C-alpha cells in the first residue's frame, strides 16, 4: 500500500475563522426500527443536490450527513434537517443513537477500497455501527489550530458526558452511558492525543503514525480531537450522535464558542493526558453522574463542569449567533442526556419503547 505523509499544504485560513461544519452519523432502520443495510441504495435514490452531502460509512446500515461551511449553528441545524428530510424521502427510516439498542451485532459491511484497509485493521471488532457526532471549526492558521485542538482535549470529558446516548446494546443495559465509547475504545487510533508543541510536531507524529499503522493518510487517525489540514479545521469527534438535528447543532454551538474563547484567551492547564483519559472513561461510564478532573487536580461532578463550560461559552456564542442553540444543552442539564432518556423509556416499556422514543426523537425535526 502506498503511504502519504501529511501534506505540508493546508487549508487553514481558506474560509472565515470559526465557521462550522457538522457531520452526524445516523442509522438506517425499517418500520419496526431494525437496522437495514440500505446506505448505497438510499444515496443512489437521493436528489442530486443532497447526494453530495450524504456518504456511506463502513457499515451498510449507516450514513453520514454533512453540512457545508456554516456561519452559525442555526444554519447547520437547517442543513441537517433538510438532509434528513431528503433521506426520508427515499423511504428510509432514521435513528439517532450512539449504537442501535438491539441490533444483534451482525451488521453488514460495505465493499469499498477505503474500507478494505479498515476491515483488515479492525477484523472482528467491526460488529455494530458506532454513530458519532463530528464538529469542525474553521481555523485561521496551523498554529492556532494546534493550540485550539490542545485546549479542546480538556473539554472532551464533559462533552462526552453531555452527549452520552447509547446505554443499550443487544437488548440489554450495558451499564455504560455510552456503549459507543466502549465500542470504539477497542479500535486503534481512537483516543485523546497528546498536546502538541506546535504544528511541526503534529506533522511529525502524524507521519510516524501513518507509517506505523500502514495506512495511506492521516484521515485514518481517528483521534477524538484533531487538526484537519485538508479542511482547515479543528475537528472534535468524541461524542455520541444526538437524536435531533437541533441537539447536534447545540453541541456545535458549544464547541464553536469554546474554540472562540481559546483563540482569544489561550488556556493554561496542568491536567495530564492520563487524567483526561480517565475522566473521558468516567464520562462514558456514568454520563452526567460522572466526576471529572478540572484544573488543579480536583474531580468534580460533570454537571458542575458543564455549567462552567456553558458560562464560559455564552458570550462567545452570542457573538457568533449560537446563543439560541445552547438551549438544547440547558435541556440536557435539566432533563438528562440521551442515555437518561433511553433508560426512562425502557422503564416504561422495555426495548420497544426505547426504539420508539429514539425514532420519534430523530423525526422531531
Describe this protein's structure.
The chain is an alpha+beta fold and 365 residues long. The chain has a single domain, classed as 2-Layer Sandwich (Creatine Kinase, Chain A, domain 2). The chain has 13 helices and eleven strands. The protein has helices at 39-45, 48-51, 73-88, 113-122, 142-153, 156-163, 179-184, 199-213, 245-264, 273-286, 302-320, 327-335, 338-363, and strands spanning 20-29, 54-56, 62-66, 93-95, 132-138, 168-169, 172-173, 225-228, 233-240, 291-294, 298-301. Strands 1, 2, 3, 4, 5, 8 and 9 form a seven-stranded antiparallel beta sheet that branches. The protein has a two-stranded antiparallel sheet with strand order 6-7. The chain has a two-stranded antiparallel ribbon with strand order 10-11. A hairpin with a 3-residue loop joins strand 10 (291-294) and strand 11 (298-301). The longest helix is centred in the C-terminal third of the chain and has 26 residues, at 338-363. It is globular. The mean pLDDT is 93.
Short description:
With 365 residues, the protein is of the alpha+beta class. The chain contains 13 helices and 11 strands. The chain starts with 19 loop residues before the first strand and ends with a helix.
Q: Whole-Å distance between the termini?
A: 43 Å
Strand count, sense and barrel status of the largest sheet are: 7 strands, antiparallel
Write down the overall mean pLDDT. Answer: 93
Q: From the helix content, strand content and strand pairing, which structural class follows? A: alpha+beta
Q: Work out the helix count.
A: 13
Low-confidence stretches: none
Task: Give the H and E element order.
Answer: EHHEEHEHEHHEEHHEEHHEEHHH
Beta-strand residue fraction: 5-15%
Amino acid at each position: 500500500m502506498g503511504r502519504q505523509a501529511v501534506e505540508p499544504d493546508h487549508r487553514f485560513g481558506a474560509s472565515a475563522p470559526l465557521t462550522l461544519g457538522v457531520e452526524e452519523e445516523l442509522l438506517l432502520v425499517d418500520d419496526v426500527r431494525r437496522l437495514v443495510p440500505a446506505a448505497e441504495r438510499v444515496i443512489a435514490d437521493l436528489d442530486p443536490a443532497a447526494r453530495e452531502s450524504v456518504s456511506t460509512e463502513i457499515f451498510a446500515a449507516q450514513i453520514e450527513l454533512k453540512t457545508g461551511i456554516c456561519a452559525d449553528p442555526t444554519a447547520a441545524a437547517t442543513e441537517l434537517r433538510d438532509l434528513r428530510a431528503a433521506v426520508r424521502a427515499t423511504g428510509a427510516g432514521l435513528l439517532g443513537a450512539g449504537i442501535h439498542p438491539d441490533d444483534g451485532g451482525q451488521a453488514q459491511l460495505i465493499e469499498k477500497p477505503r474500507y478494505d484497509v479498515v476491515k483488515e485493521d479492525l477484523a472482528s471488532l467491526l460488529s455494530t455501527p458506532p454513530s458519532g457526532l463530528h464538529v469542525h471549526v474553521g481555523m485561521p492558521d496551523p498554529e492556532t489550530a494546534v493550540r485550539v485542538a490542545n485546549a479542546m482535549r480538556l473539554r472532551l470529558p464533559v462533552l462526552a458526558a453531555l452527549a452520552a446516548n447509547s446505554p443499550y446494546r443487544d437488548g440489554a443495559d450495558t451499564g455504560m452511558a455510552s456503549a459507543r465509547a466502549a465500542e470504539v475504545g477497542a479500535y486503534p487510533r481512537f483516543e485523546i492525543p497528546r498536546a502538541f508543541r506546535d504544528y511541526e510536531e503534529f506533522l511529525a507524529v502524524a507521519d510516524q503514525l501513518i507509517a506505523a499503522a500502514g495506512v495511506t493518510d492521516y484521515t485514518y487517525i481517528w483521534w477524538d480531537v484533531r487538526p484537519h489540514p485538508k479542511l482547515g479545521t479543528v475537528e472534535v469527534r468524541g461524542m455520541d450522535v444526538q437524536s435531533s438535528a437541533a441537539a447536534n447543532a447545540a453541541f456545535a454551538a458549544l464547541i464553536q464558542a469554546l474554540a472562540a474563547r481559546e483563540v482569544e484567551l489561550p488556556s493554561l492547564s496542568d491536567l495530564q493526558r492520563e487524567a483526561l483519559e480517565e475522566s473521558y472513561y468516567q464520562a462514558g461510564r456514568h454520563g452526567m453522574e460522572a466526576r471529572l478532573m478540572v484544573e488543579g487536580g480536583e474531580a468534580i461532578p460533570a454537571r458542575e463542569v458543564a455549567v462552567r463550560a456553558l458560562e464560559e461559552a455564552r458570550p462567545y456564542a452570542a457573538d457568533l449567533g449560537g446563543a439560541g442553540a445552547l438551549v438544547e444543552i440547558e435541556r440536557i442539564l435539566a432533563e438528562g442526556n440521551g442515555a437518561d432518556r433511553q433508560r426512562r423509556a425502557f422503564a416504561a416499556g422495555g426495548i420497544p419503547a426505547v426504539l420508539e422514543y429514539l425514532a420519534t426523537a430523530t423525526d422531531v425535526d
